[in-house]
Amino acid sequence: MRKEYTTIRVPTELVDEVDEFIKKIKLGYRNRSEFIIETIRNRIISLQTYLKE
Description:
Blueprint: H1 12-24, H2 32-52
C-alpha cells in the first residue's frame, strides 16, 4: 500500500537550518523529509503525552 503525501510551505530560512543540521550533525537522516517527518511525529507524541497528564 502506497502512502499518500501532501505538500506544506516552510520558510526557506527554516529549511536551510534543517539542511545544516543534516549536514553538520550526522544523525542518520538521508534527507530533510525524513528529519521533518520524525520531528512532527515526535511533537505529536509529546503533545499526546501532555494531554494525558
